[in-house]
Amino acid sequence: MIVNGNNLSIEDVARVAIKGEKVELSAESKEKIEHSRRYVENMIERGEVVYGVTTGFGKFCNVVVSREDVKKLQINLIRSHSVGVGDYFPEEVVRAMMLLRINALAKGYSGVRLSTLMTLVEMLNKGVTPLVPCQGSLGASGDLVPLAHMVLVMLGEGEAIYEGKVLPGGRALELAGIKPLVLEAKEGLALVNGTQAMSAIGCIALVEAFNLSKAADICGALTFEALNGIVDAFDEKIHTARPHPGQVECARNMARLIEGSTLVTRQGELKVQDAYALRCIPQVHGATKDALRHVRHVLEIEINSATDNPLIFPDEEQVISGGNFHGQPVAINMDYMGIAVSELANISERRIERLVNPYLNEGLPAFLTKEGGLNSGLMISQYTAAALVSENKTLASPASVDSIPSSANQEDHVSMGTIAARKAMMIVENTRNVLAIELLCAAQAIDLRFEKMGDKGSLGKGTALAYEAVRELVAAVEEDRVLSGDVKILSELIRSGELVKRVENEIGPLY
């Protein structure tokens, strides 16, 4: 993949971070990087006072550092800022972080040497992945703490994963044949000052969120059939009368998924209206689809931006201090994504309740077991879904409205964007598990529905494929058994994209 600082997509990030695609800097980027670096070196030679180059950081911005200490200033920055705590980020998040930092520096506004950037490129391509603690970033002045831990390994310090083993950073570089970096003026600051941690988490979470949006339609359609849903709710006329794009698209998805089903009903045939959890699937799922598209728009601007400080404009012979490191655009949208994805879980749990509740499930056995009392059936699966949904409600409380001043009030408003991104990723995982529980319950309900009908009838074109995918992996629940393993298997079916792929291969792309 050619990286030039300008046209990275969310899918590109996933290809590199998850699938391991190699990257290469464009020739134009190399020229810009070298042009910018020459200006920095000339500026140092002239003895100019520039923030973070010949001064301290944060509140120390007015402390001038001698030319002899310029290099030491940069290494001190990396070591002093490596104060992360908590669990380590998953490898794919760190790889995404490395790619995004490469892409930002490739724009040529940061003043680093080309050789410095090539060290990071080489680490990414050879699979040297720094261990980066997930807690410690305020999301303004950039993701200083996580990025500092990333840079430690470039210096031969810290720890990294290489070929599946956790190693000292220097040893990992040695085994990969990479020479440790010696920082020059401006480079430490250029490497740690940016929004790449929160953006990396956001990209990885968003890729799965788009997959969950499609999977939620599939799960909802299977439940819809199990409960003899009224298909009129998906009539195109209703949705063109209120043409939110996501709503219109979801209604089309639902109509295509259940096409040919003999389990669905028409208005007034068995009942006049369905409950909202069935009837309003397009309105609820559709709002999430629209939200995710907006988040993509913001993230794709961010991951193709220069977010460090100060920025170098060599053609204008200017070095300008600003605030592009401030994560507020990402922070707000990570909160937005968390809220949007949590709604997929909210309505899914309500559908699960309708499947297992004998007063709501259109004549199916209580808790979807034929010998209730002796067996609890799928009763407690709804409990787990309810617990996950409740946890999501707590996680969906926005982080971006919080701010705690830092650096003696020099940095007096921060975004908490990395916290927002981490919470959004947790919501994505919880929602995937709720949808897995819905798949488990819906397939069980379908079995019981067909049995009640004397095995007559058929599922829709799309839902039949989803049902088959479930039954290839998980057997029907004839009597009580441990179900956590089944949920895990179905969660992986969703996470891998295989559920969506199986359906789309037959009926065409879902929206």
TrEMBL record:
Gene3D superfamilies: Fumarase/aspartase (Central domain) (1.20.200.10), Fumarase/aspartase (N-terminal domain) (1.10.275.10). This is Histidine ammonia-lyase. The modification 2,3-didehydroalanine (Ser) is found at S141. Belongs to the PAL/histidase family. Signal peptide: none annotated. PANTHER family: HISTIDINE AMMONIA-LYASE (PTHR10362). GO terms for biological process: L-histidine catabolic process to glutamate and formamide; L-histidine catabolic process to glutamate and formate. The keyword Nucleus does not apply. There is a cross-link at A140-G142 (5-imidazolinone (Ala-Gly)). It is an enzyme of class 4 (lyase). NCBIfam families: hutH, PRK09367.1. It catalyses: L-histidine = trans-urocanate + NH4(+). It comes from Thermosediminibacter oceani (strain ATCC BAA-1034 / DSM 16646 / JW/IW-1228P). The keyword Lyase applies.
